[in-house]
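Team,

Forwarding the record for the chain on the shared tracking sheet. I've put the sequence and predicted structure together so nobody has to dig through attachments.
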Amino acid sequence: MTIQRWRPTRGVIPWGSFRELEDMEHHFEEIFGRSMLPPIWRHLPAEQISWAPNIDVFEKGDKLVVKAEIPGMKEDDINVSVEGNMLIIRGEKKTESEVKEEEYYRCERSYGSFFRSVALPSTVDASKVEADYEDGVLEVTLPKKPEVKPKKVTVKKKEKASKQPSK
């Protein structure tokens, strides 16, 4: 029995080809004792290979709330829509870093699009969806339809009918 290195999952990855390539690379190294991929591939962080924002979905009062972590983006780069019974969050993430020193110059750019979808219950009023973006967190608020909101029903004590004397 061989000991396998633990590889934690990196969140939801919509397309698993890079994960499969990583597994194939691991098996290749086990068999041949060397890497099959060019050295640059081994140094790319997972976020640059494949990325999708983490999301939380929860109920808050009479609303459904979806929060997505999308740091470093501008509001214009994020697209939120409701298509049928699906909430769709799309965007394009672009990053660039540049270092100019006396003896060297380094410039890195990465970009890519992401897509997340959330199935919505029929109780959501899609015409009143609101989205706010602040400090890298997108918050989408989906109010429930008025007819499906819980209604408080008052319980009354039933009056006993008075007995009439029998003849």
